[in-house]
């Protein structure tokens, strides 16, 4: 189990996971629990973990399959000094931290799909949900949720062709606490790098791990759909798509389907 004592044993961070770790055998959503704690003033580095989520969420309120004891369902409270219009950078640095964690721990060929999915062999193995609270144009706090399929043996019919796990891809079970400790260490390092060296090193590493740039894609937005080629990610984390007429579009938010 992802017990606080197990997580702390060998944890190589200065802040993340050091303030408080709240463990649930079952909860609705770790992000929902973390947001309530952040609203009450919980410090940066507070971590919420669960063995099972009954209402685990991805982007746009989509359900996240969260069977008991199989995955990592963890939410971290961050309070960096940051303008509100730069908060998307948190998702990018989290994706890099999670991808590098899996590369280091499992040696799987993990790729990042813009903006917040981790894929192995074209199937989702992890997702990130960043929720922020801002005041007067500045970030008050961010809650970064990570859902990672570690020892999940299988998925419901509607997810079987879309999702995978470390167990399915390697045939081996991995200690979830070790993966979580590695993720916390890399997440803390990346946030420190962002604050000292800016976004460019994070974005450069993101592009090295990306599975989106150069690909033909479809982007589905609330009121519009674009089809074309993913040209680049700009310094603000915006996706640049060139359609078949050669027109470039800046995509701030949307669902990317690799074609």
Characterise this structure:
The protein is α+β, with helices and mostly antiparallel strands. It has helices at 4-8, 30-39, 88-106, 166-170, 176-197, 200-209; strands at 21-24, 47-50, 71-78, 110-113, 117-120, 123-135, 138-149, 216-220, 225-233, 239-243, 248-251, 255-258. Strands 1-2-3-7-6-5-4 form a seven-stranded mixed β-sheet, sandwiched between helices. A five-stranded antiparallel β-sheet has the order 11-10-9-8-12, with no helix packed on it. A hairpin with a 5-residue loop joins strand 9 (225-233) and strand 10. Helix 3 (88-106) packs across helix 5 and helix 3 packs across helix 6. The mean pLDDT is 93.
What labels describe this entry?
seven-stranded mixed β-sheet, 12 strands, BirA Bifunctional Protein, domain 2, five-stranded antiparallel β-sheet, SH3 type barrels, globular, 259 residues
Topology, please?
Elements: H1 4-8, E1 21-24, H2 30-39, E2 47-50, E3 71-78, H3 88-106, E4 110-113, E5 117-120, E6 123-135, E7 138-149, H4 166-170, H5 176-197, H6 200-209, E8 216-220, E9 225-233, E10 239-243, E11 248-251, E12 255-258
Parallel strand pairs: 1-2
Antiparallel strand pairs: 2-3, 3-7, 4-5, 5-6, 6-7, 8-9, 8-12, 9-10, 10-11
Helix pairs in contact: 3-5, 3-6
């Amino acid at each position: 189990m992802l017990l606080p004592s197990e997580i702390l044993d060998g944890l190589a961070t200065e802040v993340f996971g050091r303030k408080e770790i709240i463990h649930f055998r079952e909860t609705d959503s770790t992000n929902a629990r973390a947001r309530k704690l952040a609203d009450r003033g919980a410090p940066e580095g507070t971590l919420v973990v669960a063995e099972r989520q009954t209402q685990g969420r991805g982007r746009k309120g989509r359900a996240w399959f969260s069977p008991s004891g199989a995955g990592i369902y963890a939410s971290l409270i961050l309070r960096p000094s940051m303008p509100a219009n730069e908060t998307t950078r948190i998702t990018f640095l989290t994706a890099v931290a999670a991808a590098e964690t899996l590369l280091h721990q499992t040696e799987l060929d993990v790729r990042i799909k813009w903006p917040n999915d981790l894929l192995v062999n074209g199937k989702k193995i992890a997702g990130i949900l960043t929720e922020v609270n801002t005041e007067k144009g500045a970030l008050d706090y961010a809650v970064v949720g990570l859902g990672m399929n570690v020892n999940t043996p299988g998925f419901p019919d509607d997810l079987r062709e879309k999702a995978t796990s470390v167990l399915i891809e390697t045939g081996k079970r991995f200690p979830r606490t070790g993966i979580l400790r590695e993720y916390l260490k890399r997440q803390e390092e990346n946030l420190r790098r962002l604050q000292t060296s800016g976004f460019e090193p994070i974005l450069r590493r993101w592009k090295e791990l990306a599975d989106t740039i150069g690909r033909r894609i479809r982007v589905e937005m609330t009121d519009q759909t674009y089809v074309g080629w993913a040209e680049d990610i700009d310094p603000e984390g915006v996706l640049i798509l060139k359609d078949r007429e050669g027109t470039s579009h800046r995509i701030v938010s949307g669902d990317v389907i690799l074609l």
